[in-house]
Amino acid sequence: MSSPNQNLKHLKIPLEDKLEATNHFSNENFIRQGGFGKIYKGKFKRSGELMIDIVARRLDTKYGQGSKDFWTEILMLSKLEHKNLVSLVGFCDEKKEKIVINKYEANGSLDNCIMTTLTMGKRLQMCVHLEGMDIVDDACGSTGYVDPTYVKTGTVTHKSDIYSFGVVLFEVLLGEKAITDNRDIQLAQAAKSRYEC
Question: Which residues does the UniProt record annotate as the domain Protein kinase (predicted)?
Answer without folding.
Answer: 25-197
